[in-house]
Amino acid sequence: MAHQHIVSAFGEELDQLRADVVQMGGLAEAQVGAAVTAIVRRDAAMARAVVEGDRRLDELQAEIEKKALRLIALRQPMAADLRRTMAALKISLSLERVGDMAKGICKRAGQLYDADPMTSLSKAFERMGKLVAARLKEVLDAYARQEIDGLLSVWSHDDEVDQQYDSLFRELLTHMMADPRTINAAAHLLFMAKNLERVGDHATNIAEMAHYELTGAEIAGARPKGDAS
User: Fold this and answer.
1) To 5 degrees, how large is the angle CA 226–CA 195–CA 34?
2) What is the pLDDT of residues 32-64, one digit of tens each?
């Protein structure tokens, strides 16, 4: 009975670790959405809230890391249990970087607000932001439900975010050449779009980590990538 109790307790700890990662993922997803909205609506207060809110993501990541390392040290998990523990740790690190990307977008917000609105570019940025946020939500839902098909779906559509970035990049260049006064603001928007592209990369990374956790195998084949600019 004692052995069964230990096994049961270990299973509960692993379930809690996954729940912690899912909670962190929800916050990271909200940060990305708020960052995009703050830029599109030129909302300085929302941008500041995203920058300040990043601290909570850092705290959650540190808590997950502490729990994961404690599990490894005390339980010495093997095979699937070790993969679950390591996946939680690695995914939390990826989510912490997603938070950094959202914060980075908002730290440049003031530079954009001082310039004249670039409506068409803002709409393109918003479309890209919504796609990236949807990818992040999709992969976190699949991780929470342990659904391999959902993970593979995110992974196989990796190129869609790249294509939107390439399109926005070309539109930004056209704007800068047509009106040199837009160069400064367009350069900041380009940096923000690059951060969104990186969030998309992290969503794909999470799909790969979660797939390995569930199957013990890498996803076969090379990632589908968009054409480089």
Assistant:
1) 120
2) 999 999 999 999 999 999 999 999 999 999 999
> Any residues with CB less than 8 A from the CB of 194 and at least 6 apart, and which?
165
The answer, yes or no, to whether residue 228 has pLDDT greater than 60, is no
Sign of CA dihedral 151, 157, 159, 164: negative
Q: How many DSSP H helices and E strands does the chain contain?
A: 8, 0
Using CA atoms, how far apart are residues 65 and 62, in angstroms rounded to an integer? 5
With residue 210 as reference, give the H or E element that holds it. helix 183-215
Helix (H) or strand (E) holding 9: helix 2-40
Residue 198 lies in a domain: yes
Within-domain flag for 220: no
pTM: 0.91
- Scan for tokens 């084949």, then name that residue: 221
The count of domains in the chain is: 1
For residue range 85-96, what is the model confidence (pLDDT) as tens digits?
Answer: 999 999 999 999
- Going from the C-alpha of 29 to that of each of 41, 56, 190, the distances in angstroms are 18, 13, 21
